[in-house]
Specification:
600 residues, six-stranded mixed β-sheet, 19 helices
Length: 600
């Protein structure tokens, strides 16, 4: 074992008081086996990176994984950052929540313990809670920040640590870097940091419930319940799955508060279970494989609508039974089209004389441009942000500070923000909104799929085609993007993709945007990730980007039709598929680069 690794081993054994993880490192170090030492190196020589999404990693021993010691170090670092840079916020305190994964409650208690011992008041949930409750709680209790221990829809082996700032949105730069630096300066665990078991009894450790949930429900009802009397007459049965997560109680509560009565739980998935025993991946975005039990429940009950939260209840998926008997699982863009339309018509009905220059909808740049089309026709404002709800929520906050209203926001990964009760994606509020919209449409004998077609007829058909390729050799990814910046044919970005001409290029890695006279990008630039967007003369917008957390090169594409374009969805889908087929061969070059296609 080399000296650097031995130092890290000694450090770990001196600091870690958890017998399980300590003995795992001890055993690896004692084995002397080459494979075991390689594993030890992987666990100890590189730390988990704290970024704008906080932490998200596998649970287990070592600096590269989530465990008692790395969480203590993270919480100590967060405290140091707040104390050194934002001490004026101390009287506001913090709020801490957790999902039902293994160790989530312990790590929430660890965080609360470190802050209460430093004299901060902490609103610490006594039981599991949906992620939107923490985002809402930051603004309700006016805290300095919020922490949610969750890995959302990741596999059961993972956990995470998400941080919200005092505006109720997830942190952005410079807070992420500041916290990351402070963690590195706070690696030695204080003796008291391990003494977290009795934190619930600390006089500064306050219970945010039931006041938080009661006001969340009241505000949601006031802001986004548009037809309570109609809801009370609704006979539509709604099948709901919590995907073994924390959403069920909140979902049923808001469902009944909005006036609905036919709530049908997927009993096998309704109780929290960190094993996620009935699904391979606890992510409703996976489609049919995640919704099999919900579909079986709906078929037995004669129900035609399924709503699914992910395990921390910030995302939501919807499926509808077609007259043929098949189930249509709406993708994030399709569901956002429906929700955007619904929020717009009801907001306008409530605010007939509002200044539309102060009314906004927001979406991430890789999401459908349908909200842009609705905004152009109806007269309100549309804003685009970088990928990730942290950008959407902070943009919403900025817009609100200028006296404007945000009606709706979304990202294509089934994240929806209906109104501004929560400045983050909120699967609980979205659930209630879908139920109300469905009830309204079904009363007129219009299905969700039919209404989607109606919206496209009014604002233009929007067809998307999103996927990804795996690449386990980072240099090849860099090489692919560099080739796109200097194509062999002309030494610059591609000018066409088969018969489709490129009409614009935006490269947020190198600060280039051909759509502006100064050729400078208007969205934030980040040279540590790859992201290029191509616009085509047929209305297609295509974005290629790397994933921050997985070995994937993703593409997001959409053909944005005009209302006067009367071609069928099938024709538009075929045209987009043609472009994507050529793009994959010419831009990705999977055979040359050894990229692996996503398996469907």
């Amino acid at each position: 074992m080399d000296a650097a690794l031995q130092t890290k081993v000694n450090e770990w054994l001196a600091w870690d008081k958890n017998n399980t993880t300590r003995s795992q490192i001890e055993a690896l170090a004692a084995s002397g086996d080459g494979t075991q030492l390689k594993q030890l190196e992987k666990l100890l020589m590189k730390r988990m990176e704290f970024g704008t999404a906080g932490l998200r990693a596998r649970m287990g021993p070592g600096n590269s994984q989530m465990n008692d010691l790395t969480i203590i170090q993270t919480a100590q670092g967060l405290l140091k950052y707040m104390t050194d840079n934002h001490s004026h916020l101390k009287p506001k305190g913090i709020i801490v929540g957790y999902d039902a994964r293994y160790h989530s409650q312990e790590w929430a208690q660890v965080t609360a313990n470190i802050f209460t011992r430093a004299g901060w008041k902490v609103y610490l949930f006594r039981h599991i809670n949906p992620t939107p409750y923490v985002a809402y709680g930051v603004r309700y209790y006016k805290t300095a920040c919020g922490v949610m221990v969750t890995a959302s829809h990741n596999p059961k082996e993972d956990n995470g640590y998400k941080v919200y700032w005092e505006n109720g949105a997830q942190i952005l730069s410079p807070h992420d870097k500041g916290i990351a630096d402070a963690i590195v300066e706070s690696l030695v665990p204080q003796e008291t940091s391990w003494q977290y078991q009795d934190v619930f009894n600390h006089p500064l450790c306050l219970d945010p419930m039931p006041a938080l949930e009661d006001t969340y429900m009241k505000v949601q009802k006031d802001l986004i319940c548009f037809s309570e009397e109609e809801n009370k007459k609704c006979e539509v049965p709604f099948v709901y799955t919590a995907m073994h997560g924390v959403g069920a109680k909140a979902a049923e509560k808001i469902f009944r508060l909005f006036g609905f009565k036919n709530f049908i739980p997927v009993v096998e998935q309704i109780e929290p279970d960190p094993e996620f025993p009935t699904v391979k991946f606890p992510n409703p975005e996976e489609g049919r494989s995640a919704l099999e039990l919900a579909i079986a429940t709906a078929n037995r009950a004669g129900a035609t609508v399924i709503c699914a939260n992910d395990p921390d209840a910030d995302r939501m998926a919807v499926a509808e039974k077609l007259p043929s008997g098949k189930w249509k699982i709406l993708n994030g863009n399709e569901l956002a089209t429906l929700l955007g339309w619904w929020m717009w018509i009801n907001w306008r009905r409530r605010n007939p004389n509002a200044d539309l220059s102060k009314a906004y909808m927001i979406a991430s740049t890789v999401s459908s441009k349908i909200l842009r089309a609705i905004a152009q026709k109806e007269g309100f404002k549309f804003e685009e942000t970088l990928t990730g709800f942290k950008w959407i929520a902070n943009k919403a906050y900025d817009v609100m500070q200028e006296g404007a209203q945000v009606i709706f926001a979304f990202e294509e990964a089934i994240g929806f923000m209906c109104g501004t009760t929560v400045l983050d994606k909120d699967g609980v509020g979205a659930f209630a909104t879908v139920c109300e919209m469905t009830s309204h449409l079904y009363a007129k004998n219009i299905s969700l799929v039919q209404q989607l077609a109606n919206i496209f007829d009014t604002y233009g058909k929007h067809v998307s085609n999103n996927s990804y390729y795996f690449c386990y050799e980072p240099p090849k990814i860099g090489k692919m993007f560099e080739r796109l910046r200097k194509m062999p044919q002309g030494g610059h970005y591609p000018i066409a993709c088969g018969r489709f001409k490129v009409s614009g290029v935006r490269d947020l890695t190198v600060d280039y945007d051909s759509n502006y006279s100064d050729k400078k990008a208007r969205l934030p630039v980040n040279n540590s990730t790859q992201m290029i967007t191509f616009s085509f003369d047929n209305g297609v917008i295509l974005t290629l980007r790397t994933s921050g957390t997985e070995p994937k090169i993703k593409f997001y594409s959409e053909l944005c039709g005009k209302p006067e374009d009367k071609r069928s969805m099938a024709e538009l889908t075929a045209e987009l598929a043609e472009l994507i087929g050529i793009m994959v061969e010419d831009f990705y070059q999977p055979k040359i680069n050894g990229f692996t296609a996503r398996s469907d």
